[in-house]
Specification:
The complex is a heterotrimer of chains A (260), B (354) and C (294). By secondary structure, chain A is mainly α. Chain A has twelve helices and no strands. Chain C folds into two domains: 36 residues; 231 residues, MetI-like fold (Orthogonal Bundle), CATH 1.10.3720.10. Classes of the chains: A mainly alpha (260), B alpha+beta (354), C mainly alpha (294).
Chain lengths: 260, 354, 294
C-alpha cells in the first residue's frame, strides 16, 4: 500500500509540473517586454490596442449570440425528444455527435462551397451574412457539449411528471417550457453556456477561413508579428477559460447542494 | 475448542469505536447470523473475519490458527457480497473457476469442479453467460458457487439477499441453508432482516451499537428477548411501562388494569416500573377466562394484512396490537366497539428497559 | 417500450403537434449547417469539375505529398492519443485510487476541464515560450545542466514538438473521459479477487485490466480523433512548415494550392472517414464497457 501511494504522488506531481511549467514560462515571458525589469508593459500594450478591443468584443458578441441561438434550438428539441418523440432520439444523437466526427475545418470548407456568393443562399456575399454563417458554425461546434449538458439536466428531473402536472393545471407548452422546465435545468444550461463561451472566444479555424475579425485570428496575427504580447494574450486567454470552468463548477455544485 | 474463536474484538475508526469488546465462539458446521440495524457493527466484524479490516485489538482464531492479522488471501475463507461482485469480464464458468485458477489448479480440475458447482446451484445451462446477462438471483447463486468452489473453511455472507426481489429472497435463502447443511460448512451470515435471520440460522447474534445484545437460537431470541432493543427489533411487540403492584404474585398495573406475569421480575420491587412486552400473536379477543389476564378497551383500528388481521385495542393511554388468523367466516369487530383482550401470564415478557 | 413511445408521441390535445413544431428549427439547422455541407463535400469528392462521377480524386489522394500529410497527421494523433491516454489514465487513477488527500481529485478535475479546453493559438504561444529556442525550460536546461536541447535535435516546430504540445489538452481530456470508468471499478471486485487468493497483480491482470480496457481504448480513439481534426495549435506553432493534413486543407481552402477543388473535397472526405471510424469504434467500445461498469 505504501509504495503504491508514492507512485500516485509521483504521477500527480509530474503531471502538475507538465501543466504548470508552460504557464509559468509564458507568464514569465510576458513580463519581459521592458529590457532588464519585469513589467506588465506587454499587457498594457495589448489592452490598449484598438484591434484587440474590437476583435475581443466581436468574439464576445458572437459567443453570446451562439449561446442564445444554440439554446433556442437545443432546449425545445431535447425536451420534446425526451418527452414525446423518442423515435427521433437516434437521429438527434447522431446529429449532436456529428461535429465531433466532421472536423471544423472540413465543415467550414463545406460552408464556403455551399453558401458562397454565387450559390442559392449567398451568405458569404455580405459581412452580415458571414457573421450569421459564423454564428451557426459556432452553434455546430458547441452542439455536442451544449446538447449533452441540457440532456443531462433534463434527465435529472422527471420531465414527464412535471409536464403532466403542469398540463393538468392547464398550462400550455410554452408556459411549461419557460416556467417549469427552464428554471429546473438552469444550472445545466449555464454549464453548457459557459463551456460554449470558452470554446467560441478563441476559435480560430472558422473565423480565419470565413475572414471575420474575431479574437482567434487576431491572436494568430499578433503571434506571427510580436514577441511578448502573445504571451500576455495567452495568460489572459487561460484566465478566461479558467473563469468559465470555475463558474461551471460553482453552478453545478449549487445544483448538487440543491438536490440534497 | 470451537472452530472460530473471536476474543475481545475491538475496532475503531479514528475516535469512533464501531465494535466494542466483542467475543463469540462458533462451532464447526454452525450457521450463525449477525442481526442488527445498519451501523451496528455487524458488517465490520464480518470484514474483520475476512481480513478486509484489521482489528484494533482482540483476536480471531479459525481452526486453531490465529488469523487476526493475516491477509485475506491467506485465510481460506469464502465470501459472498451484497451486490454480487461477479467479475463482469468473465463468464459464469470463469468466475466460478477464478479461485482455482489463481491457486494454480490444472484446467481439467477446474472444469470438473466448475461443473460440479454449476450442478449444485442448478445453473449448468448458463455456464457461458456473462454476469450482465443474468438476473440478480442467478448472479448471487454464481457468487455463492464461486465462494464455495475453493473449498473454504468458512463461508461469509454479507447481506447476500438484500438486493433481491422478495420472492427470490425467500427461495434463495432456503437454497443457501440446504447447501450449507449438505456441505457442513461453517457459515457467518450478516443481515438486517429479522425474518431472514430467524428462518436460516442455528444461532443469532443480535447486534446493537457495536455490542452483542443477545446471542441464542432463533426460538430463544424470539420468545425470550432479553432487552427492549431485541424485543422490538425481532418481530413486533406491544411494550408497556407497568407499575409493580404485588411482586409475590407477579401482578403489575397497565393503565390502571392489573395483569399477572409468570416471568421473573428480577430485582425490581413493589412500586417500581417494569418494562413488559406482549407478542401480538399471544393475544386474543374474547371474554375473561380464569387463570388468564384480561384487559378491557375499545377497538382502535382493524387492518387486513392477508393471512392475518391486525387489530389495535385502546386501553386508556396505551394500545395493544393483536393478530388473528384470517377466516372468511369471521365477524370483524368495528372501530369503537367495546372489546376484551385475553392472554396467558407466561406471555407477559419482562425485558431490560434498554 | 416501443408501444409506449408510440402512444406518447401522439399529440395530447389534438390541434397543433407542438412537439414537431418544437424540433423543426433544430432539424432544419442540422440539415443546413451540418448534413448538407458534409454531403456536399462527400459527393464532390466523387465528381470531376464538370460534375461527372469519377474516382480520380480518391486516386489522387495517393500521391506522395498528400499521403505524407495524412501520415504525419496520423502519427501525431497516434502519438499524442496513446501517450495522452496512458498518462491521463495514470493521473486519473492516482487521484481516485486512494491514498492521496481528498482535495486532489476535485482540483484535478477542474484543472482538466480548463486545460482540455485550452487549445488553439494561445496553447501554441505557451509552448513556444516554454520549449521554443528562447523558452523558459530550454534556457533552464542550458544554463543549469549545460544541455542544449536544440543542439540535440529537438525542435518545437516538428513532430515531437507538436505531440508534446497536443498532450497539454489530450491528457486532461483523458482524465475527464476515463475517470468515470475508474470510478466504475467496484471495491468488491478487488475484495472478491483478494479473498479468492489473487495478488494485486493478478487482480489487475484478470479483472481490473480487462474491465478497463474497452474504456481505455475507446478514450484513446477519441483522443486520436480530437487531435486529427485540430489545426489552430499546429498552424500557430509551425505556420505551414509542418505538412499535416489539416494545414494542407487550410492552404487549399485559402489559396487553392492543389489547383483542383474536388481533390480538396476528397481530402476532406478522407478526414471524415478517419475521424468517423475512430468515433464509431469509440462508441462501440463505450457501449461494451458501460454494460460492465453499470
Amino acid at each position: 500500500m505504501k509504495q503504491n501511494r508514492i507512485g500516485h504522488w509521483i504521477a500527480i506531481i509530474l503531471g502538475s509540473l507538465y501543466f504548470v511549467v508552460p504557464l509559468i514560462g509564458t507568464f514569465e515571458f510576458s513580463l519581459r517586454k521592458l529590457r532588464g525589469v519585469y513589467s506588465f508593459e506587454a499587457y498594457r500594450v495589448v489592452l490598449g490596442d484598438p484591434a484587440f478591443q474590437a476583435s475581443f468584443l466581436y468574439s464576445v458578441g458572437l459567443a453570446c449570440l451562439t449561446i442564445i441561438i444554440g439554446l433556442l434550438l437545443i432546449v425545445p428539441t431535447a425536451y420534446w425528444v425526451q418527452l414525446r418523440l423518442k423515435r427521433l432520439q437516434p437521429f438527434v444523437e447522431f446529429v449532436t455527435l456529428l461535429p465531433l466526427v466532421v472536423p471544423a475545418i472540413v465543415l467550414v470548407f463545406g460552408y464556403l462551397r455551399l453558401y458562397n456568393s454565387s450559390s442559392w443562399l449567398p451568405l458569404t456575399a455580405t459581412a452580415r451574412g458571414t457573421d450569421i454563417l459564423l454564428t451557426f458554425g459556432y452553434v455546430t461546434l458547441a452542439l455536442p457539449y451544449m446538447y449533452r449538458s441540457v440532456e443531462t439536466g433534463l434527465k435529472s428531473i422527471d420531465v414527464r411528471t412535471l409536464t403532466e402536472a403542469a398540463e393538468s393545471l392547464g398550462a400550455g407548452p410554452a408556459t411549461i417550457l419557460v416556467r417549469i422546465i427552464l428554471p429546473n435545468i438552469r444550472s445545466a444550461i449555464l454549464s453548457g453556456a459557459f463551456l460554449t463561451f470558452a470554446i467560441v472566444i478563441g476559435e480560430f479555424t472558422f473565423a480565419s477561413l470565413l475572414n471575420r475579425p474575431a479574437f482567434g485570428p487576431y491572436l494568430q496575427l499578433i503571434g506571427a508579428n510580436r514577441a511578448y504580447e502573445p504571451a500576455a494574450l495567452t495568460i489572459m486567454s487561460f484566465a478566461i477559460t479558467w473563469a468559465c470552468m470555475g463558474i461551471i463548477q460553482v453552478v453545478s455544485r449549487n445544483r448538487a447542494a440543491m438536490r440534497k | 475448542m470451537s472452530f472460530i474463536d473471536i476474543r475481545n474484538l475491538k475496532k475503531s475508526f479514528g475516535t469512533n469505536t464501531v465494535v466494542h469488546d466483542f467475543s463469540l465462539s462458533i462451532e464447526k458446521g454452525e450457521f450463525v447470523s449477525f442481526l442488527g440495524p445498519s451501523g451496528c457493527g455487524k458488517t465490520t466484524i464480518l470484514r474483520m473475519i475476512a481480513g478486509f479490516e484489521l482489528a484494533s485489538s482482540g483476536s480471531i482464531t479459525i481452526g486453531g490458527k490465529d488469523v487476526t492479522y493475516l491477509p485475506p488471501a491467506k485465510r481460506n475463507v469464502g465470501m459472498v457480497f451484497q451486490a454480487y461482485a461477479l467479475f463482469p469480464n468473465l463468464t459464469v464458468a470463469e468466475n466460478i473457476g477464478f479461485g482455482l485458477k489463481i491457486a494454480g489448479a490444472s484446467q481439467s480440475d477446474i472444469n470438473t469442479r466448475v461443473s460440479e458447482m454449476l450442478d449444485m446451484i442448478k445453473l449448468p445451462h448458463l455456464k457461458d453467460r456473462y454476469p450482465y446477462q443474468m438476473s440478480g438471483g442467478q448472479q448471487q447463486r454464481v457468487a455463492l458457487a464461486r465462494a464455495i468452489a475453493v473449498r473454504p473453511q468458512v463461508l461469509l455472507l454479507d447481506e447476500p439477499l438484500s438486493a433481491l426481489d422478495a420472492k427470490i429472497r425467500v427461495s434463495l435463502r432456503e437454497e443457501i441453508r440446504a447447501l450449507q447443511r449438505q456441505l457442513g460448512i461453517t457459515t457467518v451470515f450478516v443481515t438486517h432482516d429479522q425474518e431472514e435471520a430467524l428462518s436460516i440460522s442455528d444461532r443469532i447474534v443480535v447486534m446493537y451499537e457495536g455490542r452483542a445484545n443477545q446471542v441464542g437460537a432463533p426460538f430463544e431470541i424470539y420468545n425470550n428477548p432479553k432487552t427492549r432493543f431485541v424485543a422490538s427489533f425481532v418481530g413486533t411487540l406491544n411494550i408497556f411501562e407497568a407499575k409493580i403492584t404485588d411482586r409475590a404474585r407477579g401482578a403489575v398495573s397497565i393503565d390502571g388494569q392489573t395483569v399477572v406475569t409468570s416471568r421473573d421480575l428480577g430485582d425490581l420491587g413493589n412500586g417500581d416500573t417494569a418494562t413488559v412486552a406482549l407478542r401480538p400473536e399471544a393475544v386474543r379477543l374474547g371474554t375473561p377466562v380464569e387463570g388468564r389476564n384480561s384487559l378491557a378497551g375499545t377497538i382502535g383500528e382493524v387492518a387486513f394484512l392477508g393471512a392475518v388481521i391486525r387489530i389495535e385495542v385502546k386501553l386508556g393511554e396505551s394500545v395493544v396490537s393483536l393478530d388473528i388468523f384470517n377466516d372468511p367466516g369471521l365477524h370483524l369487530p368495528k372501530i369503537g366497539d367495546q372489546a376484551t383482550v385475553v392472554f396467558k401470564p407466561e406471555d407477559v415478557l419482562v425485558i431490560d428497559p434498554t | 417500450m416501443a408501444a409506449q413511445a408510440q402512444a406518447a408521441s401522439k399529440p395530447v390535445q389534438g390541434g397543433i403537434p407542438w412537439a414537431w413544431v418544437g424540433v423543426t428549427p433544430f432539424l432544419l439547422f442540422a440539415i443546413l449547417f451540418l448534413i448538407l455541407p458534409t454531403l456536399f463535400l462527400v459527393v464532390g469528392a466523387f465528381q470531376d469539375p464538370d460534375g461527372n462521377l469519377t474516382l480520380a480524386n480518391i486516386g489522387d489522394l495517393f500521391t506522395p505529398s498528400i499521403l505524407s500529410a495524412y501520415w504525419i497527421s496520423i502519427k501525431v494523433s497516434l502519438a499524442s492519443g496513446l501517450t495522452g491516454a496512458i498518462f491521463g489514465a495514470f493521473m486519473a487513477y492516482a487521484a481516485i485510487g486512494g491514498g492521496l488527500p481528498n482535495w486532489i481529485k476535485p482540483t484535478l478535475m477542474t484543472f482538466s476541464g480548463v486545460a482540455s479546453n485550452f487549445a488553439g493559438v494561445p496553447l501554441a504561444f505557451a509552448f513556444l515560450a516554454t520549449l521554443g529556442r528562447q523558452g523558459l525550460v530550454t534556457l533552464f536546461l542550458m544554463n543549469v545542466f549545460g544541455l542544449n536541447i536544440y543542439a540535440q535535435g529537438f525542435n518545437i516546430l516538428t513532430f515531437w514538438g507538436l505531440t508534446i504540445t497536443y498532450l497539454y489538452f489530450q491528457i486532461p481530456l483523458m482524465v475527464l473521459i476515463f475517470t468515470p470508468a475508474i470510478e466504475g471499478l467496484r471495491k468488491e471486485w478487488r475484495e472478491a479477487a483478494t479473498i479468492l487468493g489473487a495478488s494485486n497483480w493478478q487482480y489487475w491482470r484478470h479483472v481490473a485490466g480487462p474491465v478497463l480496457m474497452p474504456s481505455f481504448l475507446g478514450a484513446a480513439l477519441l483522443l486520436f480523433a480530437n487531435s486529427f481534426g485540430a489545426i489552430a495549435t499546429a498552424y500557430a506553432l509551425t505556420g505551414s512548415s509542418l505538412n499535416i493534413v489539416t494545414i494542407l486543407l487550410y492552404a487549399q481552402i485559402r489559396g487553392d494550392v492543389l489547383h483542383n477543388q474536388n481533390l480538396g473535397y476528397a481530402i476532406a472526405l478522407g478526414m471524415i472517414v478517419i475521424t468517423g471510424l475512430s468515433n464509431l469504434a469509440y462508441i462501440w467500445l463505450r457501449i461494451r464497457s458501460e454494460r460492465w461498469l453499470k
